[in-house]
Amino acid sequence: MVTITNYHVRKSSTGKTFITLEIQSGIEMIQSQQTGKFYATAKKSSIPSTFDESTAKMLIGTQMSGTIERIECDPYDYTVQQTGEVISLAHTYSYQPESFSKANTPQLQGS
User: Fold this and answer.
1) Rounded CA gap, 6 and 24, in Å?
2) Between β-strands 38-41 and 28-31, what pairing exists: parallel, antiparallel or unpaired?
3) pLDDT value at 53 more than 90
4) What integer is the mean pLDDT of 80-94?
5) Buried b / exposed e across 63-82, counting CB within 10 Å, b at 16+?
6) What percent of the chain has pLDDT over 90?
7) Is the separation of the CB atoms in 42 and 28 below 8 Å?
C-alpha cells in the first residue's frame, strides 16, 4: 500500500501546469552501511495526475494498492536537504500498481 501525502503544481517544458501526487510507502527498516545501525525510512515518489488542485488536496491521506520500486537509472547528483551534502545516485523510485508485475514492466531505452 502507498499513501498520497501531498501534491505539487508543476510546469511542463511547454509551460503547461499540471498536478503531481506525492506518494509514500509504509515504514521499512534499513541498516546503515556506515554505522551498521538500523533506521526507519519510507520510499517516496510522485506521479502525474489529471486532477485539479482542489481534488488533489482532498486526496491527501488516500491509500492505494501497489508499491514504490527502486529503478536503476543514469547517475545524477543529489543534495541531501538536511546536511547540504551532494551525493551521486544511480536510482530513482517509481510507483507500480499491485496488478502490474515487474515481468510486465516495459524496459526503457538505454536500460
Assistant:
1) 9
2) antiparallel
3) yes
4) 88
5) eeebbbbeeeeeeeeeeeee
6) 69
7) yes
Instruction: Tell me how many degrees the CA angle 80-81-85 measures, rounded to the nearest 5.
Output: 40
Question: Which residues contact residue 52 at a Cβ distance below 8 angstroms, ignoring those fewer than 6 apart?
Answer: 19
Q: How many CB atoms lie within 10 A of CB 25?
A: 19
State the pTM of this model: 0.74
Report phi then psi at 103, rounded to 5. Answer: -65, -25
The CA distance from 23 to 6, in Å, is 7
Residue 24 has pLDDT above 60, yes or no: yes
Rounded to whole angstroms, how far apart are CA atoms 69 and 81?
Answer: 22
Radius of gyration, alpha carbons of the chain:
16
